[in-house]
Design brief:
Layout lengths: L1 E6 L12 E5 L3 H11 L1 H7 L10 E5 L2 E2 L15 E6 L5
Parallel strand pairs: 1-5
Antiparallel strand pairs: 1-2, 3-4, 3-5
């Protein structure tokens, strides 16, 4: 099954530009495992060395945060969109 990964502009430079990636996977974890192979710099900016999503990164399946679902084990259906947003702060 194919899903779309939509990246915030802050992440474009980790993968050669462009906001979207099409990836196959049945869960967020599976999609991220494929992302680790295809775009390792992007993966490293999203997940830490244990494979957990970094605290300052928000991941959504369609409109729901994976923190409110089953985390990385959130199941996907064809056509889902995974949106990855890095928190931005300043003062």
């Amino acid at each position: 099954m194919t899903v779309t990964i939509h990246l915030s502009p802050l992440l474009h430079h980790y993968c050669g530009g462009g906001p979207d990636r099409r990836v196959q996977g049945a869960s967020v974890r599976e999609v991220f495992a494929k992302l680790e192979l295809s775009d390792p710099k992007l993966y490293a900016s999203v997940c830490d060395e244990t494979g957990s999503v970094r605290p300052h990164v928000n991941v959504f399946v369609n409109v729901e945060s994976i923190r409110d679902l089953q985390g990385l084990d959130t199941r996907l259906v064809p056509g889902d969109t995974i949106t990855i947003l890095q928190a931005v702060s300043g003062g």
